[in-house]
């Protein structure tokens, strides 16, 4: 998995690529936890994300809960495969997906 962080003031964009699964989810969780202080808008760019497991969904949900308290979060460039996972799990009702 690859994680690229772009910070512009209180706006953070994280470009996430590869597979977000049991092995890589802790890496993303640590990167998010270390980056959210002072962030009011979080964007997860999933253009290069190929796969997400339940462990990855948990990390995304945790980030959403944190951002509900301090700002907003959105997901962009979600491919068809990942969108299907969000549909099946009901995450489309919880997340802002553009």
The name CATH uses for the topology is Transcription Regulator spoIIAA
Q: Radius of gyration in whole Å, from Cα?
A: 12 Å
CATH architecture assignment name = 2-Layer Sandwich
Number-wise, the strands total 4
Number of domains: 1
Shape: globular
Order of helices and strands: EEHEHEH
**Overall pLDDT metric:** 96
Overall CATH class? Alpha Beta
Q: Major sheet: order of its strands? A: 1-2-3-4
Largest sheet geometry: 4 strands, mixed
Number of helical runs?
3
Estimate percent helicity: 25-40%
Low-confidence stretches: none
Determine the N-to-C terminus distance.
22 Å
CATH superfamily: STAS domain
* Structural class determined from secondary elements: alpha/beta
Portion in beta strands: 25-35%
Structure summarized in a few sentences:
With 98 residues, the chain is of the alpha/beta class. The chain is built from three helices and four strands; from the N terminus they run E-E-H-E-H-E-H. It has helices spanning 25-35, 54-70, 80-89, and strands spanning 2-8, 11-20, 41-52, 72-76.
């Amino acid at each position: 998995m690859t994680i690229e962080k772009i910070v512009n003031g209180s706006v953070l964009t994280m470009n996430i690529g590869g597979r977000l699964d049991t092995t890589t989810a802790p890496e993303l969780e640590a990167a998010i936890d270390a980056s959210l202080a002072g962030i009011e808008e979080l964007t997860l760019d999933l253009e290069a994300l190929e796969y997400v497991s339940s462990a990855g969904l948990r990390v995304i949900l945790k980030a959403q809960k944190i951002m509900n308290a301090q700002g907003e979060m959105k997901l962009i460039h979600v491919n068809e495969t990942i969108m299907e996972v969000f549909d099946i799990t009901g995450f489309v009702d919880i997340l802002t997906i553009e």
